[in-house]
Amino acid sequence: MSNTSVNEVIKEFGQLPSTDKEYVAEIIRKQVIELKRESLAHRAEEAKINLKKGFVKSGGIKELLEDLESD
Questions:
Q1: 33 partner at 20 to 30 Å CA-CA among 12, 43, 44, 65?
Q2: d(CA 24, CA 11)
Q3: pLDDT digit string (tens) for 8-63?
Q4: 61 to 57, 65, 66: CA distances (angstroms)
C-alpha cells in the first residue's frame, strides 16, 4: 500500500462516527492477530523441517556455551 493510500485511509477513518471507528478498530485488531498467528504457524513449520533435516541441536546451557565457543 502506498503512503498516499495509508494517508487516505487514516483521513477517512477520522471522519467516521465513534461507533464505526470502534468497529473498524476491532476488525483491524483481529486481522493483525490472524497475521501473527499465520506467521507463527509458518515458523513452526520451518522448525519442523529443520528438525527433520537435522539442523537442530539440543542440550543444556553447558552444551550451548561450548557450541558458541567453538564457532
A1: 12
A2: 14
A3: 999 999 999 999 999 999 999 999 999 999 999 999 999 999 999 999 888 899 98
A4: 12, 6, 9
